[in-house]
Amino acid sequence: MPSHDPRTRILELRQTLDLYNHHYHVLDEPLVPDAEYDRLYRELQDLEFAHPQLVTADSPTRRVGGAPLAAFAPVTHTVPMLSLDNQEDLRKFHADVCKGLGGLFAGEVDYVMEPKLDGLAVALHYRAGELVRAATRGDGQTGEDVTAQIRTIRSIPLRLRGEGIPEWLEVRGEVFMRLADFEACNRLLEERGEKRLANPRNAAAGSIRQLDPRVTASRPLSFYAHGLGELRGAASPPDSHWDFLQALRRWGVPVCPESQRVEGIEGCLDFHRRLMAEREQLPYEVDGVVCKVDVFDYRKRLGFRDRAPRWAVACKFPPREAVTRVVDIAVQVGRTGVLTPVANLEPVSLGGVTVARATLHNFADLASKDVRVGDRVVVMRAGDVIPAVKQVLPEEGVVRGEAVVRPTRCPTCGTPVVQEEEEVALRCPAGTTCPDQLRESIRHFASRRAMDIEGLGEKLVDLLLREGLVHSVADLYRLQAADLVGLERFGEKSAGNLLEALERSKTIALERFLFALGIRDVGEATARQLALHFGTLEAVMAADGRELEGVAEVGVKVAARLVAFFGEARQREVIAELLALGVRPRGPEATREGGRPLAGVTVVLTGTLAAMGRQEAQRRLEGLGAKVSGSVSKRTGFVVAGVEPGSKLQKARELEVEVLQEADFLQRLREWETEG
Ligand code: IVH
After folding, report:
1. Alpha-carbon distance 295 to 343, whole Å?
2. CA neighbours within 13 Å on the CB side: how many for 68?
């Protein structure tokens, strides 16, 4: 039975939420559905709001809070944070270790082998188990206080769990971004028209060095511990690195699952070989391995040289770079008409995969690197799936080819290209009348994240186009078995499968359908917000710019794109055909129910909301049917004013719009939520 005493209940909730969090973020084994976590989280939030004296810094509700910092405060490391020497030859390292241990030593050395993660080193300070400070490495002596930013990383415990927690513990480790998170993050930034993150390392470092912790909170970061800084008041201090890592695991601190204790140099070499072979399959970017003497006593005997220990070394993998020659520079036309120069290469092995093409991003990049046909170039892969040309290697005495000329017409359909203000990209404005754009938009429409038409992959789309069987996405639903049987690699069965997959895809969530249409700048997140807000396709199509701007994730630019898209006769025609052929985009249940307490009400938030933060407030308001807008107008239902409200409060007063202070707002929020 849950306790009725708020103090006890708060403790119960924190313990439970910490446990769920640990299982979800550290062990990767969720214990409960997200909705259950959210329910308990809200209960805790409400209790803490009602009893502010019971709020503590280690509560799971305190991961994001506080206003942006003016600057990072310096933190002096009591034990310097060292760097690692690089050593290609692990046998040489082992020989040096044995020599360093001198005559005293006569057996095998145990090592701990770890992946060298490509991220940012940080130190976490735990006082009596509570995370009290986090700092970057900086120059090794002094780093920057990034406590507020580090607290947003869900896998880092705010409080250590279990037995034997020391009075003071400084854990060191790496903040990094997993490749899937990196790609998702870049997709999101692109959707919003913001700059992509260059590689996972910059992504991690750049996300921590954000003065506004809310920006850090929006970035999916991970952490693995890799070392001990300072330890005081431990009941049984570990005497080896491996034992220390095991203690961390028990206390709930994430430790890289690949790390291993091995015996002797052969074990080190085996690990190195294995990790290099598995490199491409790992969910994060690995630079190489780190080889560390396990036993602390031995480490003490080995000591340091300059700023690196003699007891550990980094052994880097060959970079995922290779040198090859450019055979040709082609121009690809993407789904939205963007022209991308692509280098066709003499095939070369790059991190174990043969590469014959690399992107040059855009014509500005191509011009600044001045890549020409016949050049010797470095190609690299840095987190991205698609390799890129990094630089040209000059060759003496070789006459180079001509510089590539920026195209003035689309290489596929001949339409004059355009370059929009503040954009680097050149575009073909022909839309789906351009064969390349048609092909890409059909591929996108059928893809897993869009209509998810199983079996309709890129090759099949090409085939259907070549055979003249489809001229638009609507034509997909006109396909008959007779059209397909007899095509390359098509029998009765495969034709039947495709038709079934098409049939299944007809019942589709509105958000996926909106995404599948391939409207410029409308990614999955925007599509979801549109679906949530409007509930039906008809409502989205009928909305004007102003209404669209009231939707989260939609700014002036995206609103204009939507209006333009749905205003085009051709697009309306294709959509009408899709509907007539039986495609049924279904809105989210909640929005279709209507009658929600704040349906049709526009709310504006201003200032810092101490109890929940703006994102959370927005989510809950939207859950009640409200529209959350960024600016106050006569049509605003009410304004919620937090701490240090901005000019919006002024505006609300001028326009006589109702203003709710945070406390009143929370009270009302609870009432609406119980009503709904
Ligand atoms: S141990 C004295 N272990 O590499 C030992 N470092 O050049 C210092 N790094 O600043 C660090 N993965 O950012 C260690 N498994 C690992 C690591 C690792 C990545 C980074 C770390 C450090 C740099 C050392």
Report:
1. 51
2. 11
With beta carbons less than 8 A apart as the criterion, state whether 153 and 223 touch.
yes
- Which one-letter DSSP state was computed for residue 52? G
Q: Give the pair of three-digit tokens for residue 574.
A: 């294709």
What CA–CA distance (Å, rounded) separates 335 from 518?
8
Catalytic choice (92, 99, 116, 316): 116
Confidence at 590, pLDDT banded by 50, 70, 90: very low
447: left (phi over 0), alpha (psi -120 to 50) or beta: beta
Give the atom of ligand 1 at the shortest distance from the alpha carbon of 116. 12
**Which atom, in ligand 1's list, is nearest to the CA of 256?**
15
Q: Report the percent of the chain where pLDDT is more than 70.
A: 96
Residue 647 has pLDDT above 60, yes or no: yes
Following DSSP, what letter does each residue of 173-236 receive, concatenated? EEEE--HHHHHHHHHHHHHTTPPPPSSHHHHHHHHHT-SSHHHHHTS--EEEEEEEEEEES-SS
Name the nearest CA neighbour of 358 among 374, 373, 339, 380.
380
Binding site membership of 84 for ligand 1 (Cβ less than 6 Å): yes
> How far away, in angstroms, is 260 Cα from ligand 1 center?
16
Between CA 44 and CA 616 the distance in angstroms is 14
Mutate to test the pocket of ligand 1, among 86, 93, 117 (most ligand atoms within 8 A of CB): 117
pTM over 0.90: no
Tokens of 499: 């038709």
Assess whether the C-beta atom of 114 lies below 6 angstroms from ligand 1. yes
**Rounded Cα–Cα distance for residues 356 and 335 (Å):** 22
Backbone angles phi, psi at 434, to 5 degrees: -80, 120
Q: What burial class does residue 80 get, using C-beta atoms within 10 Å of its C-beta: 0-12 exposed, 13-18 middle, 19+ buried?
A: middle
Rounded CA gap, 310 and 82, in Å?
11
- Please tell me the predicted confidence (pLDDT) of residue 385: 62
Ligand 1 atom at shortest distance from the alpha carbon of 314: 7
R_g (Cα) of the chain, nearest Å: 29
Question: Which one is predicted more confidently, 305 or 104?
Answer: 305
pLDDT of residue 198: 75
Assess whether 116 carries a catalytic annotation: yes
Q: Each residue of 260-280: pLDDT tens digit?
A: 999 989 999 999 999 988 887
For residue 525, CA distances in Å to 515, 530, 559, 565 come to 9, 9, 14, 18
CB within 8 Å of 63: residues ≥ 6 apart: 151, 152, 154, 158, 217
Instruction: State the distance from the centre of ligand 1 to the C-alpha of 478, rounded, in angstroms.
Output: 58
Q: Which of 118, 174, 224, 287 has most ligand 1 atoms within 8 Å of CB, for mutation? A: 174
Cα(216)–Cα(136) distance, rounded to whole angstroms? 14
Tell me the pLDDT tens digit for each residue of 358-368: 999 889 889 99
Question: How confident is the model at residue 591, as a pLDDT?
Answer: 40
| Ligand 1 neighbourhood includes 625 CB (under 6 angstroms) | no
Mean pLDDT calculated for residue range 184-209: 80
Q: Which of 82, 226, 306 most suits a substitution to test ligand 1, by most atoms within 8 Å of the C-beta?
A: 226
The values of phi and psi at residue 627, to 5°, are -100, 130
Q: Is the CB of 553 under 6 A from ligand 1?
A: no
